[in-house]
Amino acid sequence: DVKVTQSSRYLVKRTGEKVFLECVQDMDHENMFWYRQDPGLGLRLIYFSYDVKMKEKGDIPEGYSVSREKKERFSLILESASTNQTSMYLCASLQVPDTQYFGPGTRLTVL
Amino acid sequence: KQEVTQIPAALSVPEGENLVLNCSFTDSAIYNLQWFRQDPGKGLTSLLLIQSSQREQTSGRLNASLDKSSGRSTLYIAASQPGDSATYLCAVKNSGYALNFGKGTSLLVTP
C-alpha cells in the first residue's frame, strides 16, 4: 500500500514563527502536492512539485514556499506564520496518471 | 477557471436508504473526475475515478456516473449504513496534474 505521512497531526505556532510541514511518500512518486482545507472554501492547491527541485505555484501560493530536495520528501514552509494561515494542510502524492494518495493532514493553529 | 459545485452541502438519512450526491462543473473539457471520502480530521481516500471517455464506475454499493456534456456527476450509495457517514468530495482534473475540488457533501447516516 502507498503510504503518505505528514510530520505532525496537530501543530500550534505563534505569529511570526517559521513553520515547516513535512510530507514523505514511500512509492517513488514524482509528483507531490500541498493543499489547504478550510470550512466553506474546500481544498485549495498551494504548490506542487513534479520532480526533485522542481515546483509550480498553485492557486494560493502567497505566504508559502516549498522545498523538494529528495524525491520522497516535500516540505511546505511558512516563512512568517500569520493567523490567516490557521488551517488543515493536506499533502498528496500522485501515482501517474491519475491516482492521488493523501496524507492524514496537519491541523495548524497560529496564535 | 474550472468551478466545481456539490449539492447538497449536508445530508442526513436513516440507515438503509439509497441516496444520491451531486457534483457539477463548469468546464466540460475534463480529463477525469474522482469521488473521495474524508472522515473527520483525516485525509482523503479515493472511492471512484471516471475517465472522460467513461459513463460510470462501480465499487460495491457505490456507483458514480459522468455526463461530461452537461457538466454533471452523481455518486449513488445503495443501502446506506452508519459507517458511510463522512464528507464526500468531488474532484475534476483538466490539464496537468492538479485537481479542482468541490466543497463536499457532509453525509450523516443515522441508525
Describe the structure.
The complex is a heterodimer of chains A (111) and B (111). Chain A has 111 residues and is mostly beta strands. Chain A has strands at 4-6, 10-13, 19-25, 31-38, 42-51, 54-57, 65-70, 73-78, 87-95, 99-102, 106-110. The model of chain A has no long low-confidence stretch (mean pLDDT 93). Chain B has strands spanning 4-7, 10-14, 19-25, 32-38, 44-51, 56-59, 62-67, 72-77, 86-93, 100-101, 105-110. Chain B is globular. The mean pLDDT of chain B is 94. Classes of the chains: A mainly beta (111), B mainly beta (111). The A-B interface holds A 4, 31, 33, 40-45, 48, 50, 58, 90, 92, 94, 98-105, 107 and B 32, 34, 36, 41-46, 49, 51, 89, 91, 93, 97-99, 101-104.
SSE map:
The complex is a heterodimer of chains A (111) and B (111).
Chain A: E1 4-6, E2 10-13, E3 19-25, E4 31-38, E5 42-51, E6 54-57, E7 65-70, E8 73-78, E9 87-95, E10 99-102, E11 106-110
Parallel strand pairs in A: 2-11
Antiparallel strand pairs in A: 1-3, 3-8, 4-5, 4-9, 5-6, 7-8, 9-10, 9-11
Chain B: E1 4-7, E2 10-14, E3 19-25, E4 32-38, E5 44-51, E6 56-59, E7 62-67, E8 72-77, E9 86-93, E10 100-101, E11 105-110
Parallel strand pairs in B: 2-11
Antiparallel strand pairs in B: 1-3, 3-8, 4-5, 4-9, 6-7, 7-8, 9-10, 9-11
List keywords for this structure.
heterodimer, A: 111 residues, mainly beta, seven-stranded mixed sheet, four-stranded antiparallel sheet, globular, B: 111 residues
Mean pLDDT of chain A: 93
**What structural category arises from helix and sheet content of chain B?**
mainly beta
Tell me the number of helical segments of chain B per DSSP (H or I, 4 or more residues long): 0
Order of helices and strands of chain A: EEEEEEEEEEE
Strand content of chain A: over 45%
Q: Mean pLDDT of chain B, rounded to whole units?
A: 94
Low-confidence stretches of chain A: none
Number of helices of chain A: 0
